[in-house]
């Protein structure tokens, strides 16, 4: 099919389909601006994307390939009098790094225990440190399955292991199957082949966040009517990890009273504390600037409550100042009960849906979408230092009044690099059960994990069940996130080993097994950097480490307000059913509103 | 009678008449200059089917098909997909296979697929023989019909055929029912202040 030409004139050209860019696109299109929205990738949502299992494997592989040497086409022939070119970067290889993949389940569905009681099942311990060394970046791409041909040095050893066990060998870890099948002979583990076969049932997010029920993203979704394109589930429980145990954090009144972990005195104290902290008091102000932990200590709440309040409700660290701790506690409390028992929502099919919903809104109002299509350079009018046009990857000149671009596409020469880039550490696990089994097997859990040792980061963990449409039946999908100290593996594998069953963990019979996992680092988008770019070029930053989406939404609103200070930001889209004849002559708009409420 | 909501999405190259088919079906109207946007992006029509009422929630592409950039969210939860080609444009029939592949990749597994050869009022400049199209549809177990949005030919029938193929309602699953849309007014509040 002949590639159709793009129109050559727009008000706003946007490169990158992450959340901030997509909200910007919807906002402009909605008020009548002509928007061209491009992404060089073949999928939506950039570093906010979610992938089926198989497309995640492709993504992993892409991040292992050497970035193609940039072939700089000289577009100076397209320059007009008084113009100059600014080239954009055409590889975004810097935002994701340190990918490591581990598969702890057998490749095929066969019963491994039948054949391998004497397999070379070394009991030798391999420390996490060794594992890091042995899984260098090149070899961790699960090369066996993806045929990247990048055979690591230990190739022979690995192949041997895989022959005997049919396992994905990883840095000569003791092979797990035999031991596990002995302890649990009845339960058949889901094999790698099954994960691949059912791969489309997974929607694995690159970011792990939640929506606060009264946060700015929920407000924006509702205000703009973009909410009609997505469905949500409540996060059903808040958990925390303490003394080697996963415990449920009581957060609603009912939870507090039903809690079996809390004594009657604690229940009373907790209720009193939560009621009192809603209002700001003199006493609280006296602690401004001092750690929230100190304030909590002085409330004589006891260790249990202090832990819950600090780590799971305020979700702050021990040195967070009191005013900040109280502010997040209040936000948490305000968000309770709007839709469910916890403050949080999660989109069905994963977070990657949200940018797509905003893109659809943009398209409905005339925005033009083109994936696998990029901008190679900007045409700048020297005198005014304004970007007049862009040149796309096909060499077409497209004029625009404003250009919005994701940070990853801005060339290094344009960045005023002050500090080295900060990273987030991420892990994604496919497990065979919930971290805290309960009478319902369809729980969506937010788990806070305080530092496992001094100097370790606080880890946020989200466990998703199959009914969120993010993983296949019989599995759970677990996302771990923290600010990186070392590589994602170094930061997060100690937590994984403790809380789940892997070949490295010991005496964790009752914990769910990890079938497959991925570690990677992603640039922290909260680190806003300066750029030397024309005044009508706006840069957006990728996902940050916070649980909420405030950062992306506020970036988008800021850009919109700078360009169109008079216009409304994402006003409600008319409900088509309000204006258009419906088969039964009734406007179903109202009915829709009613029927869409959460059924509790 | 119980009303069942069925999401239907439209696929096919730009210009084959997707929006026109929706417009004909829902509003019994044909307009040569249909606005590609708001109007057709989400329309509904309810039709009886057996002892149920089927309320079709019809999603149009909003133009995102033009550069093959439909988002996977477009296919989510669809009960049926109508893939449209233009019988006067061989190209549009040839890309049908790509749309089928795209649907297999991103659409729900049990989706009902219908192939509609549109503009059959222009038989004198036909480029796609009906037989060939029918054979292709059979090979992927899809419904096949030739339509004319312009002359209101077979548009109702297209949706009737889809209705018939929709499997009867299974036991409403408890689990799949507890997802919800966000609405302006908060859910009935049983506010638990603690
Ligand atoms: C109706 C339709 C038409 C499409 N047309 C194109 C298109 O013209 N160009 C395009 O890049 N993507 C096109 N796509 C998108 C394409 O199908 C894939 O979604 C995308 O290219 C990624 O493909 P893949 O990695 O799954 O590889 P595959 O779909 O297996 O394709 C392999 C490679 O061949 C290229 N390719 C396949 N078919 C064509 C074609 N007809 N013309 C040119 N290149 C082709 C793809 O870009 C890809 O790099 C089209 C999609 C649909 C639904
Ligand atoms: N002759 C004829 N023209 C049609 C028919 N359906 C649509 N068209 C015309 O084809 C063009 C594209 O239609 P449209 O519905 O916008 O296609 P879409 O891009 O697939 O949504 C318009 O000019 C329509 O008037 C039809 O059945 N017969
Ligand atoms: Mg259309």
Largest sheet of chain B: 6 strands, mixed
Q: Identify low-pLDDT runs of chain A.
A: 111-185, 579-600
Instruction: Describe the strand arrangement of the main beta sheet of chain A, using strand numbers.
Output: 5-22-18-21-20-19-9-10
CATH homologous superfamily identity of the largest domain in chain A: Guanine Nucleotide Dissociation Inhibitor, domain 2
CATH topology tier name of the largest domain in chain A: Guanine Nucleotide Dissociation Inhibitor, domain 2
Beta-strand proportion of chain B: 15-25%
Outline the secondary-structure elements.
The complex is a heterodimer of chains A (600) and B (194).
Chain A: E1 12-15, H1 19-30, E2 35-39, E3 50-51, H2 53-62, E4 83-87, E5 96-103, H3 128-134, H4 143-146, H5 155-165, H6 177-183, H7 192-197, E6 204-205, E7 211-212, H8 216-224, E8 232-234, E9 237-242, E10 245-248, H9 253-258, H10 264-276, H11 282-285, H12 292-298, H13 303-313, H14 322-335, E11 344-347, H15 353-364, E12 368-371, E13 375-381, E14 386-392, E15 397-399, E16 402-406, E17 415-416, E18 423-431, E19 445-449, E20 459-464, E21 476-483, H16 488-499, E22 514-523, E23 530-531, E24 537-540, H17 550-563, H18 576-579, H19 589-595
Parallel strand pairs in A: 1-2, 1-16, 2-12, 9-19, 16-24
Antiparallel strand pairs in A: 3-6, 4-13, 5-22, 7-11, 8-11, 9-10, 13-14, 14-15, 17-23, 18-21, 18-22, 19-20, 20-21
Chain B: E1 2-11, H1 18-27, H2 38-41, E2 42-49, E3 52-59, E4 80-86, H3 90-94, H4 96-106, E5 112-118, H5 130-139, E6 143-146, H6 155-165
Task: Give the structure's gist in a few sentences.
Chain A has 19 helices and 24 strands. Chain A has 600 residues and is an alpha+beta fold. In chain A, the strands form 6 sheets. In chain A, strands 5-22-18-21-20-19-9-10 form an 8-stranded mixed β-sheet, with helices on both faces. A 5-stranded parallel β-sheet of chain A has the order 12-2-1-16-24, covered by helices on one side.
